[in-house]
Amino acid sequence: MLFGNKSSGAEWILAGLGNPGEKYAKTRHNMGFLTVDLLAEKQGVKLNKVKFKSAYNILHFGGARVLVMKPQTFMNLSGEAVGEAARFYKIPPERVLVIYDDVSLPVGKLRVRPSGSAGGHNGIKSIIAHLGTEQFPRVKIGVGDPGGAPGERDMIDWVIGVPSQGERKALVEVFDRAIGAAECIIGQGDCQKAMNLYN
Question: Catalytic residue at 121?
């Protein structure tokens, strides 16, 4: 095994971002949580182990042993959890895959990226700070934006708001595609094929 720590057996990290607690469970900012919950459900596993300031479990996914985690730090401190797990398992940033919401994409759109800036997303900003690099793959799930002129719109209220019924239908379908994209990235070891198939 070239990557990861033999005794621990984790070769990749898949982090779904969100905010813990019932209050935030179905909000736009929790697209990452909802996606990895669906993945765990499909595999008949619960993300119920607690370590690295996260709820997590290790799954066989995409031909690898993957630490699937939901940081419990609240969004703005997601990097504390992801960085701690990456250090513990000696996993390089290019094998840390993050799934999260993106207000710059229309509802239900998916975008795979091999790296990039935070784009105003505080969870990603925190992960970049803790990994010390922007060079980690991500799957972004579009949640749309509130419209109106910048300054008039309250982005925080938007992302911690609950999607409409119509939006929810589109989002449920995109969770499956996000899982497919993640499986492709992990299985291929890079983003190129997933970008061709899912962007």
Answer: no
